[in-house]
Every structure is written in C-alpha cells, then in structure tokens.
Amino acid sequence: MSKSGVSHTKKIMPYLLLSPVFIYYAVFWLTPVISGMVEVFTDANGKITLLENFILMFESDLFGESVLNTATFAAISVVLQYFLALLLAVLLNRKFKGAKLLTFAAMIPMAITPTAVAILWKTGLVKEGWVNTVLLFLNLIEEPIVFLNAEGFMAVLLIILIDTWTVTPSVMIILLAGLQGMQKELKEAAYTFGAGKWRIFTDITLPILKPSIITSVILRLIAAIQVWAIAVMVLGFGRAPFLVERIAFYVDVVPGIGTSEKIAFTLSFTTTVIVLLVTVLYLKVSKYGTGVRGNR
Amino acid sequence: MMDKLNIIQKAVVAIILTAMAFIVVVPLLFFLNTTFASDVEMSAFPKPILPKMTVTVKVVPHEDGQYEVFYDSGGGYRSIITTKNPVKLENHFRRQYSVTIPGEKLLEDFSRTRESGPAEFTYVKSIFYNFRQFFAIVNNSLPALKNSIIASLYTILISLSIGSLAGYVMARYSFRLKSVINVSLLIVRMFPVVGISIPMAVLLIRFGLFDTLLGLSLLYSIPNIALTAWITSSIFIGISKELEEASMVFGANRFQTFMRITLPLAFPALAASSMYAFLTAWNDTISALILTNRNQTLALVVYKAIGTTSSGIQYAAAGSVILILPALVFTFIIRKYVNQMWGGVEF
C-alpha cells in the first residue's frame, strides 16, 4: 500500500513542480490572449460582432500599404540576410590568420540596442550624414543624397538594408556554429570520391546545416513580420508603414479613442495569426523539402 | 588539400571579408563620432571619421570692443557671432562647440587679438558634454536608468526561478504530458509579444500593476520563462544523474541535492538565461510604451528623445551609448552559449 502511495506522488510530482509555470502562463499569457480575442470580436458597446472590427481595420489609414510592406520586408530581408550570412559563415569557417578577430568584428552589430541602431543610421542618412561622406570619399556619388526623403518601396528598402546590417551577424553565428560542428571526414570522403566543391556544398554542407537553417529562419521570419522600431525611429510614423508600426501608431499617437483601440487590438490579432500561419506553413514546406531530398 | 584556393579565389575571399569588416566598423566609428559631436559638428560635412577633441575658432577684433567669431564647418571660415557680452559668448561656446569655459576667460584670451590682429584659438571640448546634456535635458532619464535596471532584475528573477524549475522537471522526470508541455512552451515563446501587450495592459490595470516595473517584468518574463526552461533543461540532461543519486544516497534530500549539486553545475546555463532575460527587458521599447506612463525605462526614454529633439540627436546618441554598454558586455559574455543554443539568438 505504501509502495503504491510512493508511485502516486511520483506521478503527480512533475505536475506539482510545473504548477508555477502553468499558473503563470494561465494568468499572464492565456488571459491576455483570450481577452484580446474577445476585444476583436466585440464592438465598442460590447456586442458580439464577427467582422465589424476587421472592416474598421481594413478601412484604416495605410492598412493595405502596411500589409504589402510587411510582406515585402519579410521576404526580401530574410532571403538577403540568409545569403549574406551563409556566405560569411562559409568564408569565416576557413582556417586563416585573423578569422577569430573577423568573426568577433562581424558579431558587434547584433549586440547593439535597436534604439542605438536607429540613431546610428538616422544620423548617417541625413544630407550631411556619414553615409554621404563615405560614398563621396569612394567616388560612388557626386552630390550628397537626402536618403531620409525616400518613399514607398525605396523607404522599405532602406529599412531592409538597416535591418540586414543589424541582424545578419546573428544568423551567421548560427550557421557558423553548425559548420564548426560538422565532421570534416564527411567532406573529405566526398572529395576522395571525386565530388567537386559545389557538389560538396549542396549535397553535404547544406543538408547538415538544415536543422539550424530551419529554426533560425522561423525566428527571423517572426521578427521580420514584427518590424517597426527602426522604421519609426529613422523615418517617423507613416513613412514606411508596417503592421506593428500601425499598432504602435494607434497606441502612441492616437490613443484613447474607441476606434483606434479596436484597430490596435485587431491589428495585434491579425499579426499574431499571420505569424503563426507563416510558421506552420514554413515548417510544412521545409518538411516536404526534406522528403524530396530523402527520396532522391 | 581540398581546401586550397587559387590566387584569384583567395583575392575574392579577402575582398569580401574586408568589405564586411569595413561595413561593420565604419558605421560604428561614425556613431562614436556622433556621441561626442558638438552642435556645429553635427551639421559639418564631410564628417571626420574620428571624433574631434578640440575646436578651433578664428577671432577678429572689432573697434567697438566686440569680437567676431568665425568657425569652419567644412567650407571655409564663416562668421558665427559678434559680441562682447561674456554670458552670450559662454553660452555660444557651450551650446555650439561643447566648450565649457567662462565667458570672462574667453574675452581675456581674445583680447590678445587687439595687439597681434586676428588669430585662431583652439579649445578642448568638454568630452562628456552630450552625456550630461542627455540627463539634463531629457525628462526622467536618470529615474529611467534606475527603472531599466530594476525591471531587468525583476525579469531575471521571475524567469529564472520559474523557468529553471520547469527546465529541471523537463530534464529529470518522464511523464505523460511531457511532449505536449514541450510544444506549448515553444508556442508561448514564438507568440509575438505585441499580440499580448495591449490586453496585458487591461489585465495589469485590474491587478493595480499598470505603470509599475513589476507589471512590465511580468510581460518580459513570458518568452523568457520558456526560453530559460529550454536552455536549462538541455544542460540538466547533461548533468549526470548518478551524481545526484550519490548525493541522495548520502542522505541529502532532493531539494538539498538540487541546491548543492545540480544548481552549481548548471550555472553557465543560468547565467546565459539571465542575460537573455536582461536583454529583453533592457532593449524593449514597444511594451514599455504600452504598459507604462510615468515609470518609463531608459530604452523608451531614448526612443522618445529621438522623436522630440530633432536638433539635439547627439544627446540621444549619448543616451543610447549608456544603453549599449551593458548590452554589449552581456552579449559577448553569452556568445559561447549562443553558439550552442541558437534558438535564443534573436530577441
């Protein structure tokens, strides 16, 4: 009898020890998530509505642009950052003098606070800024350019470049860690059997890197969809509208009005759904990709 | 062997890596330059790559006792101010050149030009002028620094105490809902924080925690508890169970074993987790924007300073250096763990 008592406590012990996490997430995560959803599906008077707040959101200023810009930003920035990160990781993985120092230097931008990144580029991109100084010095331009006047796609491109400067190191580090953990024998064996460099890269290096690539792409996508701070701090509200930038706009610039609160809630909900959908979709696609590779 | 490159390939590699180093380092040098720049240097063009420690002005004496001050901001000397008023002169030198020298002293220096004619004067800049200005001009900046530290500490405390316990359980026990809980932790971590911030404000108002640092930390802890659980569980798995069992054979109970054996061995994981927690709280602006009113954090104050002071962005730059330093130090302390636990790289 006492034996069964022991096994019983053993069974509930992990749940008991996990109870702080359960309680914490029930109160501070699940409650806000649910109450946020309730806000989205009720109107200002508390009546249940399915579409009213979404219509409000669709008709709000710059909504279409913000969706388009967010998609453009996420697609271009993730691809660009991956290409650069992979290139740098492969090059820095080679053994040569100064490789460690260069890796260290390459990592600095990821350590810089977002607000500081914004100031760095804002002071750089004005007419008398350092970007024009450098471009003139390199003879790439003849007259200083007023970058901060960029509009539409050029404004988004500007934010993409700034984001790439900041974020590429963190992607590179992940890939570099994956490369360094790779067994050298595998590559050497392939080389012995006559595989070329490119073949080794596509058929050995990339598949081995795949797990790190998949997870870090998800993290990058999630962060990319939520871009806002750089855009607002460098260009100001409404210049390069993004989904989360709109949320911040309705919270920071026009707070307190019933409709702006509803729009903010609906935008949050929409962003969250998009993030989760993209994550699931990406996981599905990358799994499918593995299958194809495996069958070949 | 296979890794040998021919000379052209070597050159290409060298060019790419040099370009990379250039693109990383040059903006940082110019940023440092901005933090130490005086007002006139902000509009100077082209920009020098190293910050100037001195300022040189040309002074021409006038017959009515006034002095005309010339400054060269890139296109030759231009007349800036003509005065004999020491207060005006002192203010001008402080605001425009970050030179803090009493006006009488300046007039005394300039009086030399009465005999020897127009001359150039070089003064040493007050190097930390922008830093002092940041705390003097920007509202709440000093309390905000304190707030940031407190919010970070709360976040570390909450994330570590709840998260490491969960990590320990996930590593040591096997139970039925384990995989479900594992996935749930991942979902919580992936969930965008903006999606929770606004309803969280409503919740915190109900608890009386709105506009408090504890309330803010409760939000920051949401992704970090899950992250801590993940990081620590991978480390706890690596700590041999035999060591713990031996300790218990010698009469220590599970709690004592945890405190004396397991915890010290897991220290690196705890250090890494606490630093991630620190960075979340330290760098965030959007949640602080939504959840605070008067009790702002330093990152939020700097963010607001960029928006409001269009002319004095160098003061905001100085403020952001104060933000960067701890973040920089911590990021390089944890870079060892970043390599192993790449899931936590982006935050």
Description:
The complex is a heterodimer of chains A (296) and B (347). With 296 residues, chain A is mostly helical. Chain A is 77% helix and 0% strand. Chain A is built from twelve helices and no strands. Chain A is globular and about 75 Å long. The model of chain A is unreliable at 290-296 (pLDDT under 50). Chain B has 347 residues and is an alpha+beta fold. Chain B has three domains: 7-36; 41-126, no CATH class; 134-344, Orthogonal Bundle (MetI-like fold), CATH 1.10.3720. Chain B has 17 helices and four strands. Chain B has helices spanning 7-36, 39-42, 86-97, 103-110, 113-116, 129-137, 141-172, 178-190, 194-207, 213-238, 241-249, 254-265, 267-283, 286-291, 298-308, 313-333, 335-340, and strands spanning 54-61, 67-72, 77-83, 119-124. Chain B has a four-stranded antiparallel beta sheet with strand order 3-2-1-4. In chain B, strand 1 and strand 2 (67-72) form a beta hairpin. In chain B, helix 11 runs antiparallel to helix 12. Chains A and B meet through helix 1, helix 3, helix 4, helix 5 and helix 6 of A and helix 1, helix 7, helix 8, helix 9 and helix 10 of B.
Unreliable residue runs of chain B: 341-347
CATH topology of chain A: MetI-like fold
Tell me the radius of gyration of chain A.
25 Å
* Classification by helices and strands of chain A: mainly alpha
CATH-wise, what's the superfamily of the largest domain in chain B?
A: MetI-like
**Estimated helix fraction of chain B:** 55-70%
Oligomer: heterodimer
In CATH terms, what is the fold-level topology of the largest domain in chain B?
Answer: MetI-like fold
Main sheet properties of chain B: 4 strands, antiparallel
Mean pLDDT across all amino acids of chain B: 84
Total number of domains of chain A: 1
What is the number of helices of chain B? 17
CATH superfamily of chain A: MetI-like
Helix and strand composition category of chain B: alpha+beta
CATH class of the largest domain in chain B: Mainly Alpha
Largest interface: A-B, 96 and 87 residues
The overall strand count of chain B is 4
N→C terminal distance of chain B: 40 Å
Q: Architecture of chain A, CATH level 2? A: Orthogonal Bundle
How much is the average pLDDT of chain A?
A: 84
